[in-house]
Amino acid sequence: MPELPEVEALALDLKGRLDGRAIVAVHVAAFSALKTFDPPLSALEGTLVDDVTRHGKFLDLDCSGTHLVLHLARAGWVRWREEVPAIPPKPSSKSTLAVRIVLDDGSGLDVTEAGTRKSLAMYVVRDPLDVPGIASLGPDPLTDDFTVERLGEILQREGRKQIKGVLRHQGTIAGIGNAYSDEILHAARMSPYKPASSIEGDELQTLYDALRTTVGDAVERSRGLAASELKGEKKSHLAVHGRTGQPCPVCGDVVREVSFADSSLQYCPTCQTGGKPLADRRMSKLLK
Predict the structure, then answer these.
(1) Which of 101, 114, 155, 196 has minimal Cβ neighbours within 10 Å of its Cβ?
(2) What confidence tens digit (pLDDT) does each residue in 197-246 have?
(3) Angle, vertex CA 147, rays to CA 200 and CA 185, nearest 5
(4) Which domains does the chain have, with CATH numbers?
(5) Where are the transmembrane segments (predicted)?
């Protein structure tokens, strides 16, 4: 799933490619992806791409004042094409193509989504804040006003909620998803189940430093990379996320997993839970 660092780098890459280009057409191959009807898609035709920015995990193309906003969800991505086919794509349940953006020089973007769970979303709006998900975003963790004091206020407000869920809830803090929340908590040597409001003093500073460093370093590593390189860069620098059964790069203990209905988290028992494995109900059922 693309998170803040990847979307930030993707916005930067696309800004360089699209600056001053005109949009000829936007073809929707997966109708479920388009979430708005006013302005119509035709409002984008003939507009110039003035800017490409990010709001949390949302990608925002400013097209002469009309905004084409994308949320790539779990399995979406944007692929640059030097030349797009002349024939518009046909809707197909077998294709990963969701949206095709055609530019005035014959190049374009394919917005794709793998898998059967279709969650990718596209909005055509006059103001990014017209997108409900953007309007409800929490603070961006890399801005100057996201201080340790502000993080402390957020954690106290969230009470006994588990810190893992607090970090990845977009209305609380924008841009952090499943992968980077795992990485932040590993860097902070903190259990994903720790109650948010119990994190104070030195622990709060440790979590804040881990958050800013983990996400900030990922942004810097991704900056300047082409879209095609971003997924590989992310995966190659993960310490625990997606590495179940492999050795922790810090202590050598085996990285473990807790599975949920539609996701999972990874952690190191030695680094984060005092050597105690966390209960995994799904795995417990399989072992009975």
Answers:
(1) 114
(2) 999 999 999 999 999 999 999 999 988 888 788 888 888 899 999 999 99
(3) 55
(4) 4-135 (3.20.190.10), 148-287 (1.10.8.50)
(5) none
